[in-house]
Amino acid sequence: KWGEMFAKEQQFDKLAEGVDTSSALLTLAKLHDVELPITQTVNDVINNKITKADAIKFLLARDALLYVEVI
């Protein structure tokens, strides 16, 4: 619900799980050298560092990556 309200630029006064923890997740990702482009982009939008339109453009412009699990 928070995302819908945010996209419509409406106030959301309830707890939205993940909104406050995205920065903590990014701190852990940096510590473990893990790239989290979606989390980073969402965090940037939440904190008004980029617009929603720019976030969509950024994510859609990323190259598809091959992820391989190493055992």
Q: Can you walk me through this structure?
A:
Helices cover 51% and strands 0% of the residues. The chain is globular and about 45 Å long. It is mostly helical and 71 residues long.
What's the arrangement of secondary structure elements?
Elements lengths: L1 H6 L14 H10 L5 H10 L5 H10 L10
The tally of beta strands, per DSSP, is 0
Note the overall shape: globular
Amount of helix: 40-55%
Question: Which structural class best describes the helix and strand composition?
Answer: mainly alpha
Low-confidence segments: none
Radius of gyration: 14 Å
* Averaged pLDDT: 80
Q: Name the beta content range.
A: under 5%
Span between N and C termini?
A: 38 Å
- SSE string, helices as H and strands as E: HHHH
**Quaternary structure:** single chain
The main pleated sheet reads as:
none
Summarize the structure.
The protein is mainly α and 71 residues long.
Tag the structure with descriptive keywords:
71 residues, mainly alpha, 51% helix, 0% strand, globular
